[in-house]
Design goal:
Strand content: 5-15%
Number of strands: 3
Strand order of the largest sheet: 1-2-3
Order of helices and strands: HHEEHHHEH
Number of helices: 6
Largest sheet: 3 strands, antiparallel
Structural class: mainly alpha
Length: 160
């Protein structure tokens, strides 16, 4: 281990400790999940938004016993009023100008100009995969994001 790795390792240890404390304080469930689900409810009433991947509001079959979606994660496909996919990258830029951090595509496609290989593997077309918007929530978020993000997303989409 290099000496410059030591602060990174210490940061990881602290992050794991904080996450463990948060889980323990909430009975083993991440408290971000309900916030994500409330945000999803508010976003899906907007026309032109579609959830990609499993719906976190629908429990996985008991036999599977696997997590269907991370509690802090939402991935949406965005289209305009003519039902045409919009550019996820341009949407992200517009949201950023309004003070929101978001991404386009999947985390493993970060920085790529091509559509997300994960979304393509899930069966979405290249146009749909290029219209994705990825939102990640953290313990620093509160219910104010529920009120602000849907309107910001509508403003951003109307500018494209």
């Amino acid at each position: 281990m290099c000496s410059s790795d030591l602060p990174l390792a210490a940061g990881l240890v602290r992050a794991v400790a904080l996450a463990s404390e948060r889980l323990a304080a909430h009975g083993g469930s991440d408290p971000i999940g309900p916030l994500r689900d409330q945000l999803l409810e508010r976003l899906l009433v907007l026309p032109g938004l579609e959830l990609s991947g499993p719906d976190p509001r629908c429990p996985a079959p008991r036999a599977a016993m696997t997590l269907q979606r991370l509690p802090h994660h939402l991935s949406l496909l965005v289209s305009n009023s003519a039902a045409e996919p919009v550019s996820g990258r341009r949407l992200v830029q517009s949201l950023w100008q309004q003070g929101f951090a978001a991404s386009s595509g999947s985390a493993c496609s970060s920085g790529r100009q091509a559509p997300s290989p994960v979304l393509l593997a899930m069966g979405y077309t290249p146009e749909q995969a290029s219209s994705s918007l990825r939102l990640s929530l953290g313990p620093w978020h509160n219910t104010s994001v529920l009120a602000q993000l849907p309107a910001a997303l509508e403003r951003a989409r109307s500018c494209l």
